[in-house]
């Protein structure tokens, strides 16, 4: 696979990724190199990664606790303190080896430490390969509120090695696959049809490449999310609110990101049918396709009311308005759509039917 280039870095795949990494480390002469991992990637990914490094670098390994609940400023502070204790300077670099929590948080930590040190992302989950790999978004949650604190800052490179997917269970793979389905819905109807036919994840590499290409094309046209890049948030306005609610609610089991976003895409599909002309046949296709993969979730009236109050914290909001990305049809979006509250509740009723 050819590398995918952006104006400031490249996404490299498979063995080429390690070739480019070794070349970069040899040429850059970093004073210190830190590798950020969580417990899982420390055990299951780090040995494989280190075996591909040619020269004998004195890597410092920093481990954080795994999971979205640890993607917060407290964890950042702990990492910054370790960097200081280990004499990191402005010529140091950080390699973020992990899923979206590690790459989002690690990129933010690196971007702020001593006003910015180099970082390299090595996503190890399907979600992080197709979502966090492109665009330069870094950051952490503020309590249960998703990605409220962060900056857009680009890595030196991104390395995508599908071999790491062998360390994931089916639920984690399906979570990442939801973002790939989103890429088809917002940009490419033929890709959506191809993804619907995927039954397992044995030969997913070409689809990963397509998803990264789609996201990169969008980000290249709108790097700071003024217009077009907003389409990448389809399903995320309600999906993030649902994810945040389940993160904090003691009476609910945790929902993975893709599981929450899959619900959000059905809900926002209904809003699209009502407001932006999405054909009913396409709405029903969206609902059936997601419910075939993701377990249906039950929402009480109290759940829904609380979720809707969380919408006011969505990052896309402007001037007190909640702005939605909706579909005109599969493959084409409308942005900055205002939605009446009664329709939001109707959407949950449609999901529950």
Automatic annotation (TrEMBL):
Transmembrane as a keyword? no
Keyword Nucleotide-binding listed: yes
Task: Report the InterPro entries cross-referenced here.
Answer: Dehydroquinate_synthase, DHQ_synth_AroB, DHQ_synth_fam, DHQS/DOIS_N, DHQS_C
**GO-annotated cellular components:** cytoplasm
Domain 3-dehydroquinate synthase C-terminal residue range list? 176-317
What's an example Gene Ontology biological process for this entry?
chorismate biosynthetic process
Q: Name one GO molecular function term.
A: nucleotide binding
Top EC group: lyase
Q: Where is the 3-dehydroquinate synthase N-terminal domain?
A: 62-174
Give the EC number.
Answer: 4.2.3.4
Q: Which CDD domains match?
A: DHQS (cd08195)
Q: Which cofactor does it need?
A: Zn(2+); Co(2+); NAD(+)
Which of UniProt's keywords are assigned here? Answer: Cobalt, Lyase, Metal-binding, NAD, Nucleotide-binding, Zinc
The highest taxon in the source lineage is: Bacteria
NCBIfam families reported for this sequence = aroB
Q: What does this protein do?
A: Catalyzes the conversion of 3-deoxy-D-arabino-heptulosonate 7-phosphate (DAHP) to dehydroquinate (DHQ).
Instruction: Write down what this protein is called.
Output: 3-dehydroquinate synthase
Task: Recite the lineage of the species.
Answer: Bacteria, Pseudomonadati, Bacteroidota, Flavobacteriia, Flavobacteriales
